[in-house]
Amino acid sequence: MPKSKRNRPVTLSKTRKKGREHKEAIVNSIKQALEDYSSAYVFTFENMRNLKLKEFREQLKSSSRFFLGSNKVMQVSLGRSVADEAKPGIHKLSKFLRGDAGLFFTNLEKEEVQRLFEEFEEHDFARTGCMATEKVELKEGPLEQFSHEMEPFLRKQGLPVRLNKGVIELVSDYVVCEEGQPLSPESARTLRLLGIKMATFRLQLVCRWSPDDFEAYREGLDLSDVESS
What we know:
The protein has eight helices and eleven strands.
């Protein structure tokens, strides 16, 4: 009997796409931040951890504001050239909003901003696809840190294990990951079980703008197109 076309699954968890109104709100917020704060920075990030960033934002909310999202929307907010820039010279920041980047507006002195960003980091367990920072190898023998109930789970992660008198043991040496190689889902889960953290969430300043100055922080940045514009 053919299936009824009326019996179609309906997803109740669909979310409304962020449209033009949302983008316009971001543009307006960034333009307002240009009025409220004395300087603006572009920063990049790696191994993003939302909870840690939220804590950092909360710490600085009285003096600063962060923006993360579409680089194109942030570029439009600042202006991409002298002709459409929101403030004199601010379009220079747009050229560095690439990849995993954000904007930071603040009234803090630049020395204080540099100190805060240099000290900010969070060590955490690496996720699937992250590059291993070291080789991790388990030697043949008992894995006494795990209870016997873990044996089926460890086996699913690819570990050559067996139960011997209620103790999990490796029947041969096993390489969990190789340095410089991306982590598989199984490797990431195993490292978490072993308590080995390979990811560090960092924020790195790229450049700074103020009404009187533009400054690049990272060595090797190509400033030729910025200085000529």
